[in-house]
Amino acid sequence: MAELMRTNDPVLITVVEDVLGGEGIPHHVADRNISVIEGSIEVVQARILVPDDRVEEARRLLEEAELGDWLRRRSTR
After folding, report:
1. CA torsion, points 32, 20, 58, 30, in degrees to nearest 10?
2. Domain 2-70 falls in which CATH fold?
């Protein structure tokens, strides 16, 4: 799984889930519960993950939805 973004913004998470789900891209929101508990200090943020083989498609969709500024930088590994 590859990380697309980190945020504690529940509205942003919902929008991203809708965009990805609408195109059938599997995704997982990791650390959602702990980020709610600790969200006010932003130590732990929810992470939106997609399968490695769908990363480029997911990034393109989110950029087209004008959410590109929220995306994490691409890994250089």
Report:
1. 10
2. Alpha-Beta Plaits (3.30.70)
Please state the domain extents for the chain.
Answer: 2-70
Tokens read off for 64: 């087209």
**What pLDDT is recorded for position 34?**
75
pLDDT, tens only, 27-65: 999 988 775 665 566 678 889 999 999 999 999 999 999
DSSP string, 14-45: HHHHHHHHHTT---EEETHHHHHHHTTTTSS-
Separation between Cα atoms, residue 6 and residue 4, nearest integer Å: 7
The closest of 23, 20, 21, 24 to 4, measured between CA atoms, is: 20
Residue in the block written with tokens 């200090």: 41
Q: Is 77 helix (H, G, I), strand (E, B) or coil?
A: coil
